[in-house]
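Write out this protein's structure.
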Amino acid sequence: MCAKAKLPSIEVEGLVDGDRPDMVEVTNLPGGTKVRQVAFTQSRMFVLSEKGEVYLYKVTEHLPDRAAMEQFGRAGPASQIRGELMINDAPIKIKGIAPVKQIACGLDHVVFLDKKGGLMAMGDDTFG
């Protein structure tokens, strides 16, 4: 049940809730880490701790193989891009930044607001 919309189910790209795998708990953050915020780019998940530390996880995308696309057609579920969150890999702690208060993400970039009001940004360097 979607509490916010009070709907019995949410449909995303033709898949209802019961068709997706169960949620997986992220258990590999350093012991005692309390999470304040989570934000995503296209290829990364950023986790902000209550202490202002930032951890990142890699997100990989898997495209269906050519045979599946030809068998089921481009409009079917087999042709949809599926992202896999690599939570089994150890998170990478971002070092050398001031304690962070908030994170904002776009497709290929992330902006950190530190606790003193300063901004830091990083991205994929497509445009410099």
